[in-house]
Design brief:
Neutral Protease, domain 2, 4 domains, eight-stranded mixed beta sheet, five-stranded mixed beta sheet, about 25% strand
């Protein structure tokens, strides 16, 4: 602010600034309202709606060993109204030249940068109508060692340098001035000038390569389908390229791109796409939307990114030497591949309009990852992974950390949009919706959602509308309640009535949730009822021997049954529940016990039965719950509980010789410090 005041005083003393420039000055330094009440993007962290990008032509010269690269971008824009300024996103860029053409007429431009934004003006009002911007600039090649590289960055391996990109969520602006928001989906044409010995890849197929002076070459890529800036990607370096054949209904070419001399590690990866992609096409009812699919192994990357046509992975996750290419590694690799390929429809073909709806991308990809992976498992193992996610969220503090949808008004808030709860709770909500409205109904609705918004942006309300059109069910109250509230409810179940007419009573807190409660009783097909009050009565047919009020195991709530209902369920119904239902029951017992909503004595009564389950998922949860309860045992109770663990739960004893080591651990302060990452 001190610098601003000095400049302002100098301007007043010399009267060198026009009124227009003074107002621009105030807008940049004091964040005052702009001329003609134009939206202030610095304040809102969102670009004004007055300009719409129509196409980008991006030309970059990249030498991977250098610290910067040179860029030139042509942006065709439609101005929807008259403006004094055109706002774009740009961060850490050195702008060298800007040329503006209004209706084909060249104009002299001036510009200013401020944080995440670039403002351009020509000394007169612009629009409405066509505008073309030409911007020349220098951008940094980021280089960090903590796996948090953003924008365009370079990595060195032995004597080789590589350039990669990571633009999610708002870091395309570090590599090119652009409209860096997800709703702006625009075709991109990319040209890369690189060394002749290097390989250059991007989202679209290369359509021409020409030699240039000084050992360089020019690689031009086909125009992309409409894409937001965050999904643009390129890579340059001495890569090995593995031909993985073709895949999908359109028989698109598939390649594995590896660092030099690592092509031999791409065996499992090269086989996976041809097997997995058709499953996603079959479910969505839409062919793979892009013209090719490269899987790029990135050095020192964290996770993976779903760029259309050029998916990037941590090299260790995608590649494996023959000795390390175990079934466990291949299974993990295929799950990650499935997640990223699911994004090609959910996130890429249809993109969230703003960051509060990023669950439409990540929740769907996580859910489909589990759905496709389940289809390759025996029937008795299906549905357990998604139920485990539900149990984990309901058990841990993560459930109360934040809602799925959050507002974004600055970079710090945007950094949090990819929180784990967006992935996992989003997926769990979708599984509950499928079990409520039916698998076929949801599949039809998702096909409509994808078809209606293909190559466009969409919102959660658009999803609700598509479901209503196909199923006549309004999922809005359920969906938005779960997305916008933290935590999850505990529903208390009891039975009232006699003489053959019983009602299931559902109670919850005064601030009631709207949820589908799916009921499984003996001999009757599970059915779902919507509850939205603090007390709801649901009619039961006859007097069932047992009741489990979370059929399918996907209900995003804890089921607290009265002691009598628990007794009846465990004695007569437990063996008739399917795997996800038994796992949800086990998870609820653990969660309710830890929260104090269920007496430990009741839980301990049922744990031995669960520990004998044929499925290891249930046995492990039962033992884990028993071990958690051991923290309560002290004094005279400790030896009794130890005997109970060993004799009833069959937890093997620990050798008494470990006592000394146990004591030494706590005597050494360094041993029990938390060394995990924050």
């Amino acid at each position: 602010m001190t610098t601003g005041c000095m400049l302002y005083s100098r301007a007043m003393r010399h009267a060198a600034l026009s009124v227009r420039m003074m107002l621009l000055f105030l807008a940049f330094f004091f964040e005052a309202p702009f001329l003609f009440a134009q939206q202030n993007p610095i304040q809102e962290f969102r670009l004004p709606k007055s300009a719409l990008p129509l196409s980008y032509k991006l030309d970059l010269t990249i030498r991977p060993e250098e610290a910067t690269f040179a860029g030139r971008v042509l942006i065709d824009i439609e101005l929807k109204e008259q403006v004094q300024l055109i706002w774009l996103n740009a961060k850490d860029l050195t702008i060298q030249e800007i040329h503006v053409r209004l209706g084909g007429i060249p104009k002299t431009a001036s510009w200013r940068t401020s944080g995440e934004f670039l403002a351009i003006e020509v000394g007169e009002p612009m629009g409405p109508g066509a505008v073309q911007l030409e911007i020349r600039y220098i951008a940094p090649l980021d280089h960090k060692t903590d796996k948090t590289d953003v924008g365009a960055y370079h990595k060195k391996s032995a004597n080789d340098w590589y350039v990669y990109t990571s633009f999610f969520a708002i870091d395309a602006r570090r590599a090119v001035p652009c409209f860096d928001e997800p709703e702006y989906k625009t075709p991109w044409t990319i040209v890369l000038h690189v060394k002749r010995d290097d390989v250059a890849v991007s989202n679209a197929p290369a359509i021409s390569t020409e030699e240039e002076p000084e050992g360089m070459k020019r690689v031009e890529f086909a125009p992309t389908q409409p894409l937001p800036s965050e999904m643009i990607a390129f890579a340059v370096g001495p890569f090995d390229v593995v031909d993985a054949g073709v895949a999908g209904q359109k028989r698109i070419p598939v390649r594995i791109i590896t660092p030099r001399n690592r092509a031999s590690e791409a065996g499992s990866a090269s086989r996976a796409t041809a097997e997995l992609l058709p499953l996603l096409e079959q479910y969505t009812g839409i062919p793979y939307p892009w013209d090719k699919l490269d899987h790029l192994a990135v050095l020192e990357m964290h996770g993976a990114e779903e760029n259309p046509g050029l998916i990037t992975y941590r090299a260790e996750e995608l590649l494996a030497a023959t000795s390390a290419d175990t079934p466990l590694h291949e299974r993990a690799m295929r799950r990650t591949m499935t997640h990223e390929m699911a994004h090609q429809w959910f996130g890429n073909l249809v993109t969230q309009s703003w960051w509060d709806d990023v669950w439409l991308s990540e929740g769907f990809a996580t859910w489909l990852q589990n759905k496709i992976s389940d289809a390759q498992l025996p029937a008795f193992e299906r549905g357990l992974q998604i139920t485990w996610l539900r149990d984990f969220l309901l058990l841990t503090a993560t459930v109360d950390k934040r809602p799925v949808r959050v507002s974004v008004h600055n970079r710090k808030e945007n950094d949090a949009v990819y929180d784990l709860i967006v992935y996992w709770k989003g997926a769990c909500i979708l599984q509950m919706l499928e079990d409520w409205i039916g698998a076929e109904g949801l599949q039809r609705a998702l096909h409509r959602y994808l078809s209606d918004h293909a190559f466009k942006a969409a919102t959660s309300q658009d999803l609700v509308n598509a479901i209503a059109q196909e199923t006549r069910i309004d999922t809005g109250p359920v969906l938005f309640g779960l997305l916008d509230r933290t935590g999850a409810p505990t529903l208390h179940f009891s039975v009232e009535g006699s003489g053959g007419a019983e009602n299931l009573i559902v109670k919850q807190s005064a601030k009631a949730w709207t949820l589908p409660v799916c009921i499984h009783v003996q001999g009757v097909k599970p059915h779902c009822e919507l509850v939205s009050a603090s007390r709801t009565e649901l009619a039961l047919s006859g007097q069932p021997r047992w009741i489990w009020p979370n059929a399918y195991g996907s209900g995003y709530y804890r089921s607290a049954l009265t002691g009598a209902l628990f007794d009846r369920l465990m004695k007569a119904g437990y063996a008739e529940l399917d795997g996800p239902e038994r796992l949800a029951l086990t998870g609820d017992l653990e969660s309710l016990t830890n929260s104090g909503d269920l007496p430990a004595a009741i839980t301990m009564k049922f744990l031995p039965q669960i520990a004998k389950d044929v499925d290891p998922w249930m046995r492990e949860r039962a033992v884990a719950t028993a071990l958690e309860l051991s923290l309560l045992a002290n004094g005279d109770m400790r030896p009794k509980y130890r005997d109970w663990l060993q004799k009833t739960m069959h937890v093997p004893p620990v050798s008494p010789t470990q006592t000394k080591s146990f004591q030494e651990f706590f005597q050494d302060k360094r041993s029990h410090q938390d060394t995990t990452d924050p």
